[in-house]
Amino acid sequence: WRFAMAAYFVGKRLTDDEQARQQLWALGRDAGKHAVELAPDCAPCHMFTAINMVLYGESVGVVKMLTTLGEIRSLLERSYALDPGFAYAGAPRLLGLIDHKLPRLLGGDPDRARRYFEEAIALDPDGPLNYQLYARLLEDQNRIEDALHMARRGLAVPMPSADRVEDLSAYAQLHQYVPALETKLAERKSKKLGVRR
Predict the structure, then answer these.
(1) How far apart are CA 162 and CA 168, in angstroms?
(2) Residues 164, 73, 115, CA angle at the centre, nearest 5°?
(3) Closest CA to 90 of 82, 98, 80, 104
(4) Distance between CA atoms of 100 and 104, rounded to whole angstroms?
């Protein structure tokens, strides 16, 4: 699973060439599947297999990812059942992200996504990424005030440590996202006032 984790990280963070990324994620997927066979009760094995499958599928075409979506969900659900807090609540966060981004017609469910994000925050209340993803869901539901509140909560947590790379990135992005949401909310309020006049 450590190889699968490295393949995901290097492909996502350190590689610009798309073909090289695909190769890394394919290797990570295959290593992860082998790890799951060797250790079926290993939460990291399931989670990093799923992550590499998602990234590989996205890189070769969404249709490819959709054909493996059932397997991806099963891997994440198994990881979540084995160790809910692993990787700062990575499994519920990813399940929430899938339910958020996937159209209802293809099995997405915004209400289930909300529950997953809430579970991720409960498991890792100091993770800015959990708040950021939840805020994006709320914004997409046109709940701008709620999204702003959630994004501010993400900025209120302690500065993430250097090993929490994704949380550091989310923390930096929240510093831009909060003012953008404030502007959006102010514009909405001014439009309502304009209508009333």
Answers:
(1) 7
(2) 70
(3) 80
(4) 9
Render pLDDT for 37-65 as a digit per residue (tens, 0 to 9): 999 999 999 999 999 999 999 898 877 77
Q: Which residues contact 14 (CB under 8 A, 6 or more apart)?
A: none
Residue 38 burial (CB < 10 Å; 0-12/13-18/19+)? exposed
User: Could you tell me if 91 and 54 are in contact, meaning their C-beta atoms sit under 8 angstroms apart?
Assistant: no
Contact assessment for residue 132 and residue 158, using Cβ atoms and an 8 Å cutoff: no
> What is the rounded CA–CA span in Å between residue 159 and residue 132?
14
Residue 70 neighbours by CB distance under 10 Å: 10
Q: What is the DSSP letter of 102?
A: S
59, 25 in Cβ contact below 8 A?
yes
Q: Taking the CA atoms of the chain, what radius of gyration do you get in angstroms?
A: 18
Instruction: Give pLDDT tens digits for 126-137.
Output: 999 999 999 999
Place of tokens 């005030």: 145
